[in-house]
Amino acid sequence: MSDTGGLLRDKVILVTGASSGIGAAAAYLFAREGASVVLAARRREKLAALTAELTGKGFRASSVVCDVTRAEDARSAVEHATRCFGRLDGAFNNAGIGGDQTPLHEMGDEVYDTILGTNVRGLWNCLRAEIGAMLDNGGGSIVNNSSVAGLVAIPTAAPYVASKHAVVGFTRAAADEYARRGIRVNALAPGSTRSEITVDWYARNPGLEDAVHALTPQGRTAAPEEVAEAAAWLLSDRASYVTGTVMPVDGGYVNH
After folding, report:
1. What is the pTM of this model?
2. Each residue's pLDDT tens digit, 118-169
């Protein structure tokens, strides 16, 4: 067995959107910190390869193919976690998609439906399943991945901004509703982070990355691991009196 640290020792944690980017980095970090991790994502091959890497290094990991826009998939992912490891202690709801830089009045309904369907309905599906399992186990901790777009406006990205504001709203509502039942719910608001979504977004919108860096006091894009570290702390018992918060992980962007 690999050295597993201790921040998340003996916890069972579900990670959605786990096949790449922030989700994959989180799965690795949580495992190194002692958690049994359940990786959930749509892309079967990438998911299987990452899970094999983790188990090959002696970590406790399992995976389940999951499209969070389907309520039955979200329930199945939670059931998979409890079946494999006996319970669910934590969840990092990271699955989400970006969008095009397009003026609001030029966007089609399909863009709105796709972004809101994944980022909002997907979170709704996951929260219901996760909270139910955690209530059965006496409590737990949930971290939802929002964005700086959940705190401030980003031009020509209205559906994405709306969806990430909704993540913040769900986080605060659930935190308030379940605080006395032993479940903490928090959110991250990452800034520019090196992931498939941002790489694709920047590639399709020349000059955008430089513009974002110019507005970021640290002047750079984050590594996925930097966001994962914040998620790990919020999921851990060291954050036991933290609930309903939205933590920017943005190099100072929001305060600039």
Report:
1. 0.95
2. 999 999 999 999 999 999 999 999 999 999 999 999 888 999 999 999 999 9
The residues carrying an active-site annotation are: 160
Question: Residue 193 in contact with residue 168, Cβ under 8 Å?
Answer: no
Q: Which domains does the chain have, with CATH numbers?
A: 12-248 (3.40.50.720)
Residue 68's identity, in one-letter code, is V
- Give 10-33 pLDDT, tens digit per residue: 999 999 999 999 999 999 999 999
> CA distances (Å), 217 to each of 6, 141, 221, 250, in order?
32, 31, 11, 9
Which residues partner with 184 through β-bridges?
141
Q: How many CB atoms lie within 10 A of CB 52?
A: 12
Which residues have a Cβ under 8 Å from the Cβ of 178 and sit 6 or more positions away? 131, 135, 185
How far from 129 is each of 76, 80, 193, CA to CA, in Å? 9, 12, 28
Q: Quick one: 79 exposed, middle or buried, by C-beta within 10 A (0-12, 13-18, 19+)?
A: middle
What's the per-residue H, E or C state across the chain? CCCCCCCCCCCEEEEECCCCHHHHHHHHHHHHCCCEEEEEECCHHHHHHHHHHHHHCCCCEEEEECCCCCHHHHHHHHHHHHHHHCCCCEEEECCCCCCCCCCHHHCCHHHHHHHHHHHHHHHHHHHHHHHHHHHHCCCEEEEEECCHHHCCCCCCCHHHHHHHHHHHHHHHHHHHHHHHHCEEEEEEEECCECCHHHHHHHHHCCCHHHHHHHCCCCCCCECHHHHHHHHHHHHCHHHCCCCCCEEEECCCCCCC
pLDDT at 5: 59
